[in-house]
Amino acid sequence: MNAKHRLVKALQGLPIDRPPFICPGGMMNMVTSEVLEKSGLTWPLAYGDPGLLAELAKGAAELTGIENLGIPFCMTVEAESLGADVEMGTLYSEPRIIRPLMLRISEWVNLTGFDFAQGRMANIIQAVRELASTGSGLPIIVSLTGPISLAATLMEAMEFFGAMHNQAHEVHGFLQFLTSNLIQYARSLQAAGADILVVADPSASGEILGPRNFAAFAGPYLNLLLDEGGQGYAGHMLHICGKLDSLFAVLAETHVTALSIDSSTSARAISEALEDKIIVGNVSTHLLEKGTPEQVKKAAWASLSQGVKVLAPACGLSMSTPLINLQAMASVVREYNPDIG
């Protein structure tokens, strides 16, 4: 069973020989400072060339032991394609949005859609084509920024969340526009050869939205994106940050088969509450950055023992995360025995 078959079966809830170990890309970027340095690349160089993007994805998997090719390497690509200014980062920091693109929610009507023919978005699509042509046996995972999180990066986050209370019509218009564009992007990536779709929507957390606003503003657009953008993929998953206990009921209504969770959510609790969802995660990224390999292995073993079916970091990795700790996670899935977990 190669890595691709193993992950696809795991996401379908089918029997597998052992758990997969993944890091999807995007928010959960697998490229640390050590990976970037060993590859001899910078963010501007890599993002400016589809071939280098593909090589960086392959190099990250080889150096860490992560069992997928994950692209892109940050959550700024969609916002940049809509006109946001991006600072491209350093050896020690990922690309980031410099300033909000919009001051008021009503300004979304001035936005034009994604341009798949140029810029980083075009390079990512071409990089997926190049990765798909290698026949590596590793699944290609593409990560999209979810509608809520994308909206909250294009304008001041508190202004956006405040508009849910007094300008709900504008919020729905904005989210519909973003979701329509994300669906087209997902389809383009699938056509290029991507295997698994991940939607990372960290701002749709229970602490930020709560169940009522999640049901009104997040769930419908996530489901639309998964239903229409997820067609043709071998599997898909949703990542949301924070403590999800308050969202269990509304997450049960999402059309996703797998949920990637943060370390602040109990794998056992969510597995028991959402028995039809495959749980992905949830090794603390703070531990991955600051802990020892033995501590990481213990945490990874605990995650698997408590209901995680696909091992992954709990959230976005710090770029200072040492390779030895990611390699320790990789060793756990090869050694894991559920009978003694």
Characterization of the model:
The protein has a single domain, classed as TIM Barrel, CATH 3.20.20.210. The chain is built from 15 helices and nine strands. The protein has helices at 3-11, 33-39, 43-47, 50-64, 77-81, 119-132, 147-154, 157-166, 168-192, 210-229, 248-251, 267-273, 285-290, 293-305, 323-335, and strands at residues 69-71, 86-87, 96-97, 140-145, 196-200, 235-239, 258-260, 278-283, 310-313. Helix 4 (50-64) crosses helix 6. The longest helix has 25 residues, at 168-192. It starts with a helix and ends in a 6-residue tail after the last helix. The relative contact order is 0.14.
Count of distinct strands: 9
Radius of gyration, CA atoms, in whole angstroms: 19 Å
Q: What profile does the largest beta sheet have?
A: 7 strands, parallel
Stretches where pLDDT falls below 50 for ≥5 residues?
none
Q: From the coordinates shown, what is the CATH architecture?
A: Alpha-Beta Barrel
Structural class: alpha/beta
List SSEs in N-to-C order: HHHHEHEEHEHHHEHEHEHEHHEH
> Quaternary arrangement of the chains shown?
single chain
Strand order of the largest sheet: 1-4-5-6-7-8-9
Which percent range describes the beta-strand content? 5-15%
CATH third-level topology: TIM Barrel
Task: Give the end-to-end Cα distance, rounded to a whole number of Å.
Answer: 22 Å
Task: Annotate the secondary structure layout.
Layout lengths: L2 H9 L21 H7 L3 H5 L2 H15 L4 E3 L5 H5 L4 E2 L8 E2 L21 H14 L7 E6 L1 H8 L2 H10 L1 H25 L3 E5 L9 H20 L5 E5 L8 H4 L6 E3 L6 H7 L4 E6 L1 H6 L2 H13 L4 E4 L9 H13 L6
Helix pairs in contact: 4-6, 7-8, 7-9, 8-9, 9-10, 14-15
